[in-house]
Amino acid sequence: MTSQATAAPATSDSLASMRAATAAVAAIEISAPDRRRRLTYLMLFRVVLISLVLGATTLLYSLADVDLGAPSAAGLFGIIGVTYLLTLFYALWLRSGGTVARLAHIQLAGDLVIATVLMHMTGGAQSAYTFFFPLTVIGAAVVASRRTTAWVAATAAILFLLTGVLGWTGVLPPLAGQYLRPYDLSGIELSRSLGLNMAALVGVSVLALALSGQLQVASATLAVERSAAADLLVLHSDVVRCLSSGLVTVDPGDQVLTINQVACEILGSTPEDAMGAPVDRILPGLAARLGQLGEHASLQRAELALERDGRELVLGVSVSPLHDRGGRFRGRVVNFQDLTDLRKMEQSMRLAERLAVVGGLAAGIAHEIRNPLASISGSIELLHQMPQADEDSRALMDIVTREIDRLNGLLTDLLDYANPRALDLQTIDLAGLVRDTVGVFSQDRGLAGVTVELTSGDALAPIEMTGDAAKLRQVLWNLLRNAAEAAAQGGGHVTVEVLPRERDVTIRVTDDGPGIPREHASRVFEPFFTTKARGTGLGLATVHSLVSDHKGSIRFDNPEEGGTCFEVRLPYTAARPS
């Protein structure tokens, strides 16, 4: 019993909510665009109907040998002409943007007047055009509210009864030469005609009121649905616009349907260029992968490498099928993100890990080798000073001493790389440091015809920053030495540029040598990797480490004109150039 008692109020509340929702929907007025469309159809129907009346009247009068010049015939044709003129007036009003609701009321009132005049002129209660009254009520149900429809129905009934009775009693005189006169009916015939027509009018009015209510609810529901659809469209647009990843939809033929702004920014394209184009034009290589997927298959976390504006892009791509409401395959949704910076960061992290491992190993090896080398070097010195040593022995000892010194230099580089001393940070003039280092390096007799030029020269303004002058000089010296060795195999020119920027300063060292092969690009900064016959492979590794200690970055590129360009970016940590 308790559950039933509880369920009853719940059911009652649900019904009340449904009634309230229905009442709220029904209370919404017909929208102006919807009413405008219905009025247009009503005017078109009126023109067609009055044209049929004109044709039928003309035909009947001709068959009955009625004088078309008689006042009754002229009045009928005048009513038809007035109807045409009123319809033209209504159309101009509607076109000019006038109030749609007021125009609907004016049209309904005009239709009632025309129906009344037409009924009296064609015989009163026995007129063949009494159906104009029900048609007017139906028109009210289509273009007006339910209340207006009820008023039109009541007015039509009153006008019909008054016209029939007053015409039959002679209060409304017939026109001269009228073919059917209102008072030709007997009392019984009048009552029957009025009763039948009133019954038809009441029946049509009841149905029209029901139709008006349904149309009003349907119109309001459609307005709500349109509003919801518009909100969903705006929400969809906002979601797509706010996505931080690229979004592209393609049809079954791999033609681009839509593309969002982020995708255009990543791919360097525009919506106009992408829309309707093959997907391979904006995402080369993707069509081949899509061709390997079935209609219901998806692709998750795949990587796609492509080139845009001279730079390589690495994209993380996911593909999902696109179906319509019936489950039919309509294309695919391609979602992608730019992973280029992430992959570079991962590469830098792997390089840093390898450098750390190699550095620790190098420090241990260097420490263990240096002590025996010291013993060997001391022993060779003692042997060199013995009186019984001949010239050949001393020459061999000199070779051993020289190689020991070279090994000791290599071990020193290893220790500097593995256990670098802390930076001695001071405010320095980077421009002066670069100018002095280039000047000293250009005097090296081992350059073998290579010219080193500082493009800004003495005109370079001072650039103050915080850094370790000795370490930065070591960075520049190693880059100059590598550039000079490469330029010796090419045109023999090395240029140095210093470019102050808003947040950092860039140093570029460019040579016109043979350049770095693409297959070696990923290993340039690895320790012990070298393509030189007598190189150690620690120069650029040390440079990379020192630049990282200064919170900077280093990269290289092979320009189109040839050679190699190393670019070092160092942040301002103390001051900026004025």
Task: Describe, in plain words, how this protein is organized in 3D.
- This protein has 578 residues and is of the alpha+beta class.
- The protein has 4 domains: 21-224; 244-338, Beta-Lactamase; 344-418, Helix Hairpins; 426-571, Heat Shock Protein 90.
- 58% of the residues lie in helices and 14% in strands.
- It has helices spanning 2-26, 32-63, 71-96, 100-121, 132-143, 146-169, 187-242, 261-267, 271-274, 279-282, 286-291, 340-385, 391-418, 430-441, 469-487, 539-549, and strands at 246-250, 256-259, 299-308, 311-323, 329-338, 426-429, 451-454, 464-467, 493-500, 504-511, 553-557, 564-571.
- The strands form 3 sheets. It has a 5-stranded antiparallel beta sheet with strand order 2-1-5-4-3. It has a 5-stranded mixed beta sheet with strand order 7-9-10-12-11, covered by helices on one side. It has a two-stranded antiparallel ribbon with strand order 6-8.
- Strand 3 (299-308) and strand 4 form a beta hairpin.
- Helix 5 (132-143) runs antiparallel to helix 6.
- The longest helix has 56 residues, at 187-242.
- The relative contact order is 0.05.
- Mean pLDDT is 78; it is low at 1-28 and 574-578.
Return the average pLDDT rounded to an integer: 78
The tally of domains stands at 4
Q: Give the oligomer, counting copies of the same chain as homo and different chains as hetero.
A: single chain
Rounded to an integer in angstroms, the radius of gyration calculated over CA atoms is: 49 Å
Return the structural class. alpha+beta
Q: What is the topology, as strand order, of the major beta sheet?
A: 2-1-5-4-3
Strand and helix order: HHHHHHHEEHHHHEEEHHEHEEHEEHEE
Please estimate the helix content: 55-70%
**Number of DSSP strand runs:** 12
